Amino acid sequence: MPNRRVRLTFPQELITEPVIYTMAKRFDIMPNIRRAKVTETVGEVVLELVGEEQSLDKGVAYLVERGVKVEDLPGDIVE
Amino acid sequence: MSHVKGLKCRECGRSYAKAPIYVCEFCFGSLEVVYDYEAIGKTLTRETIASRSPSLWRYRELLPIDGEPTVGLYSGFTPLVAADNLARELGLKEVYVKDDANCHPTLSFKDRVVAVALSKAKEFGFDTVACASTGNLANSVAAHAAQAGLKRVVFIPADLEIGKVIGSLIYDPQVVAVEGNYDQVNRLCSEIASKYTWGFVNINLRPYYAEGSKTIAFEVAEQLGWRTPDHIVVPAASGSLSTKVWKGFSELDKLGLISRARVKVHVAQAEGCSPIVQAWKSGRDVIKPVVPKTIAKSLAIGNPADGYYAIDMLRASGGDAEAVTDDEIVDAIKLLARTEGIFAETAGGVTVAVARKLALAGKIGRNESLVICVTGNGLKTQEAVAGKIGEPIHIRPNLAAFEAALEKKTAGVG
Q1: What is the DSSP letter of B393?
Q2: Which stretch of A74-78, B35-39, B323-327, B354-358 has the lowest confidence by average pLDDT?
Q3: Chain A residue numbers touching B205 (CB-CB < 8 A)
């Protein structure tokens, strides 16, 4: 099954919302959280998303639409 | 003899054996090389180092190779220029420029990291090396791999100007121009690196590659007579260089080669791409990715892999982070050229401009020593200053025309 390793950065207003759960349920994606850091103003979650390629695209698009920054790990490769 | 114990996750601390891997399978944290400092301390002395040839390999016990170095034997050990003219302009007494615009063979500090990465690639038995780059890294990988007899593949975004590609193409690599936006190019390169058994210098060889940056700190300390400067200003793209410079000074301290790593490592970015500076100024640990928009292309990394560690380093060293505008960058390039005869690429303009800003703000004291890192040669980014510098005087081929022009110039007319 295709997977994607991503870092999600949540703005303050989204920290209390179940955005990852909603994405997982709606697009049939299995999120596996590996690391997380949440402060008063910003949240960061590092996780692996497993699902069909199309679902992953849709799920990531949903996160972006909600205002979450989605970046592939390990960061920018092109130097 | 190797002094490398293995690799260790920077996040969760899990240990790994030496291998071409870069990410922790458990927490996806990045991996770092771990050394046996006790063993190194028994053999590595200032005298041993001084007896070796002037390249970055004079510190080979602190570099992650097992045998003798095989690639980039002439890289590093660039001049530490006593920049007295620049010091006067900055209102400081003791300023040096660490001049990697001179690095062998491709005129940027990337020659340091690539020398280490490809020596390691040969130890791992790779016959093909690769990188994803828009400039200096690609040049360096292509050149070093050519000399080392390795097959070489360079990935670039398809819209990169041909002028920038020539510096790589000349070394006869396979250049792959990827059509897509920046994120797509990043993702594709990650995928290729995980599928092909190639040594991708900035992906699966990254833990080894990044260690090469420490040699800037080693050289600065040695060139200053085995002491640290009070301040060093380092440019930041991924943030890796700043963390490794600090690690380098700290290692010398740990080994007793300097009395104490008492240096503030400052991070310099362009305002158009300053995610690390922004996080630092707002007191955040979390780096918010940005879309880069600056003339300092070699620093245009919007989602810096080592941003968090750079913030950590700033706290540990007591340094500061500052950003400067594109105009300030150009002014600083001109200032450095005018005062010291050094033509820096845009990243060098960034460090000089940030040094000036920190000095003006009183964060660098008048009597404190400062090292400014210039990491690349201005001949590579001439378009950044084109049209913003002087022009030739045109004259007819006779003495009278010359003297007339000269008179006009002296009178301040021309």
Answers
A1: P
A2: A74-78
A3: none
Nearest chain A residue (CA) to B287: A9
For B36-62, what is the mean pLDDT?
A: 97
Domains contained in chain A, CATH given? 3-72 (3.30.70.260)
Q: B233: domain CATH number?
A: 3.40.50.1100
Percentage of chain B surpassing pLDDT 90? 87
Instruction: List CB contacts of B338: < 8 A, sequence separation 6 or more.
Output: none
Residue B261 to residues B12, B117, B145, B371, Cα–Cα distance (Å): 26, 26, 35, 14
In the listed set B174, B209, B244, which residue is the last one of a domain according to the structure? B209
User: Is B133 near chain A, with CB under 8 Å?
Assistant: yes
What phi and psi, each to the nearest 5 degrees, are found at residue B324? Answer: -135, 155
Q: Which residues of B touch A78 (CB under 8 A)?
A: 132-134, 155-157, 182, 185-186, 189
pLDDT of B211 over the 90 cut? yes
Same domain as B240, residue B225: yes
User: What is the pLDDT confidence band of residue A74, given thresholds at 50, 70 and 90?
Assistant: confident
Domain range for B224: 80-106+213-384
Question: How close A13 gets to chain B, by Cα (Å)?
Answer: 15
Structural domain contains residue B12: yes
- The pLDDT-based confidence of A71 (bands split at 50, 70, 90) is confident
- Residue pairs between chains A and B whose CB atoms are closer than 8 Å: 84
Rounded CA separation B262/B27 (Å): 33
- Which residue is closest to B302 within chain A, CA to CA? A76
Residues B205 and B220 grouped into a single domain: no
Q: Which residues contact B92 (CB under 8 A, 6 or more apart)?
A: B359, B364, B366, B368, B370
Please tell me the total count of domains within chain B: 3
Of residues B203 and B187, more confidence is placed in: B203
Q: Which of B182, B209, B236 is the last residue of a domain?
A: B209
Global pTM?
Answer: 0.94
Residue of A nearest to B184 (CA): A72
The answer to the question of residue B46 being in a domain is no
In Å, how far from its chain's centre is CA B339? 22
| Whether B333 and B369 share a structural domain | yes
Which of B38, B42, B58, B61 is CA-nearest to residue B50? B58
Q: Is residue B53 part of a domain?
A: no
pLDDT(B22) > 70: yes
B302 interfaces chain A, CB cutoff of 8 Å? yes
Residue B86: pLDDT above 60? yes
Flag whether B145 is in a domain.
yes
Q: A75 and B26 in contact by Cβ < 8 A? A: no
Q: Sort out which chain A residues have CB atoms less than 8 A from B284's CB and list them.
A: 39, 41-42
